[in-house]
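Quick one: structure tokens for this chain, please?
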Amino acid sequence: MENKRLKLLKQYIGKPFSGSPSPIAKWLNGTVISVDENSVEFQFDVRKEMTNPAGTLHGGVISSMIDDCIGVNFMILGLEYFYPTINLNVDFFNAASENDTVLVKTELIKKGKTVINFNAVVINQNNGKLVVKASSNLAISSRKITF
């Protein structure tokens, strides 16, 4: 049986994920492209306020996109306790600029009892180039998930 968080997210496929409880997710304004229990894909339009002085997508914003998408991927696992991010390793390969569209794809690698591992990539949809490759670990906390 499909869990309620996964079912909710599937309702947003093709639409911005306005149902997120995360203020940063609302600011990023990503569109849900695909979702299953082990991965999510979100598309983001690069806006001027997301760029650095060189006019390219700011590394901190890219990292926020990745971290937020991994957080969504975590939430659809349907676990009882919150697993905050304990690290996020990001390798930058190519730039994305204002008015470009980037696709963030996450993948669950291992769901352990105390640590969960994810990978992610960011692809520039305008030219097909790999922008970022990332990995992240989340560790269990004592905080129950209430939503």
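The two ends are 19 Å apart (CA to CA).
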